[in-house]
User: Fold this.
Amino acid sequence: MSRRGENIYKRNDGRWEGRYIKGRKPNGKIHYGYVYQKTYKETKEKLLEMKWRYKQVQISRGIYTGSVHEWIDYCLEQQKNKVKYSTLMTYRYKMEKYLYPFLGEIELRTVTQENIQEWVSELEKSSLANTTIHTVVQITRRYFEQAVQDSAIEKNPFKHVLLPKKETKKIHPLTLQEQQKIEEIAAKEKNGRPILFALQTGLRIGEVAALRWRDIDFYNNLITVRYTYQRVLSEGSGTELQLGRPKTRASERILPLSANLRDWLLSWRPEEQTEFVFQVGSRPMEPRLITYHFNKICQKAGVTNCHFHQLRHTFATRLLENRGTITGISALLGHSSTKMTLDIYTGSDLTERRKMMDDLLTSWVP
Assistant:
């Protein structure tokens, strides 16, 4: 199905037709060009190519008159071979859902700071989290900055736009008692293995799903995190599963394999070795299935309002409680900087703070 503003339609003869601005007639009216292909995907690709050619001509002449939607489509096309597919699809989704309905049809060079501030106000009125608003605006700002660099517009109207205050992210790891309850139930169930593994390694759910046996070096006791398995937005519509590189370079990391975890893995590793550690049929156990089993285990353990990512926070919190350093924890988690680790985890757990206060006061009794 065609999305709003795409100008792609299915014809009665079964072909797909795409329409794009080819130029301007002497009287100033738009001169449209058309492309015809057998499938929606082929039509969209050809249409983007033709739009790109027209924009190149316009920019070179310094007379770009395209809309915000057209400009960002052009930018996304340029990014195709520069960013991960999942990242590109995320950018496209955010633009289509949050930007185009408000500013998509406005001519790029006429957008003002007032237009953008009104757009931000509309986003605030919705149920969108302030952190998501910041992300959407940041992505859009970059595309407008590119327009300035390419001389499609004179200045970036985002320069003095005011954004809502970001919420302080509260981390709620499992208590030691909750963790023990979940571990007890998970140990009794075959589908509980990914949960137990995540609690001992701090891997993200996609990293757990993508882990191969060959990524575990039982001789040197090392785990290498190379891939992530996740459901991403597809080119047309809906989603698809994709095995790819982790979210950042820092996420590709090596973790020590503890003796207990090593023995546990070897105790149930199949004799006919499968490719993936957590596998269903010939494929990795997908994150949605892991989440399903995790929720069932939490329910049996009597732990409510818990999501899989909390296992990662729990892993980090247990390390902090055992006097782990921020630098070491950051490396194990695959954070791009220790600042990120500090922002998320410092002061996140009352147990650690209580221990520090108790240690401080042990030498003095009132």
Notes: The chain has two domains: 8-149, 176-361. The longest helix spans residues 40-61.
